[in-house]
Description:
Layout: E1 3-6, H1 10-21, E2 27-30, E3 43-45, H2 51-57, H3 61-67, E4 75-78, E5 84-88, E6 100-102, H4 103-112, E7 119-121, E8 125-129, E9 132-135, E10 140-142, E11 145-148, E12 166-177, H5 180-183, H6 185-191, E13 195-199, E14 203-209, E15 215-221, H7 228-231, H8 239-249, H9 255-262, E16 269-275, E17 288-290, H10 293-296, H11 304-321, H12 326-355, H13 360-368
Parallel strand pairs: 1-2, 1-11, 2-7, 4-13, 11-17
Antiparallel strand pairs: 3-6, 4-5, 8-9, 9-10, 12-15, 12-16, 13-14, 14-15
Amino acid sequence: MTITIVGAGLGGLALARVLHVNGIDAVVYERESSRGARGQGGMLDLHSGTGQRAMREAGLIDQFHAIARRQGQDLRLLEPDGTLLLQEDTPDDAPLERPEVDRADLRNLLLDSLPEHAVCWGHAFESADNGLLQFADGSSATYDLLVGADGADSRVRTLLTDARSAHTGQNVVELGIPDIDRTHPDLAAMVGRGNYWVLGNGQSLSAQRNGDGRVRIYLSFYNTAEDWFATSGIPFGDPAAARVRLIDLFTGWDSRFTALIAACDDTVLPRSITTLPVGLTWPSKPGFTLLGDAAHLMPPVGQGANMALLDGALLGLALAAHPDDFAAAVKEYEREMFERTSAAGRQSARIQEILSSPDASRKMLAFFQPG
């Protein structure tokens, strides 16, 4: 029977890999024209019990450890006036509980572990009915099981539920400083080796060290409208002027933080944050299921990629255990997935609530240091 996966993100590729390890063929259809057609974003922290468990099931844990950054677990938490609330530096012999990995490197690791024919690039999913997939270019393919791994705006999701993602009130601008150790050594020392987080009243600045020497900077604005980018006065078409406007929006913050914004290159990317309802479920339907953001889109606070990878691994194991009964495999997978991701979604929503609160920095400190 034919297993068809829509979306070559981390979850879809993890599913394809676990199936491959268990001697089951699957085809992944991806709308992008090639693996390098679009940037894959920054770093991910893979948790030992979820994302790393998926890599073990995929037979790739040693390869993952080879590209993971132990020091990426470092954390610095500050207030807008420059007060350092928390600094956690990772010892060289610390366990790899949540090491950071470049998302593109992880995706390439998964892609390289699959047969070349396993991923069909340039196939944008349009519709599915009676075992036949239709793509935007007019081509088609058959399926016995269709797995929607097509992300936040999943089109496969509409085959199972009417649920739609909704804006959270958070809008993010992504910036970046390339080769920071050479170009701005003082800022590099300030950010450190891992994650740097400044939380204020309704705003935050986070800086994240990437494996290629770039520091990605995310400016978040909470309790804002879905059309906030249009009304914010940020001229996204003029990067230099956009940086000036963003610095204005952080008036009153320590000058070291606005210096980070001033040092950024011309990458200025707006991102609206949306989520699906926490605890979303649907009646099991023969021939269809979802994983990753298509099934349980969460705020970007560290759970999404881990859940997607584990979704793919556990669905693959369920299908391997029931090779002649896809319906039973899907029910088994969905039952576990709904429970696990509902808990992760509740925790993510709690963190999102903290970040949008007036005293976010102190509440987050209590979250990291309970009791």
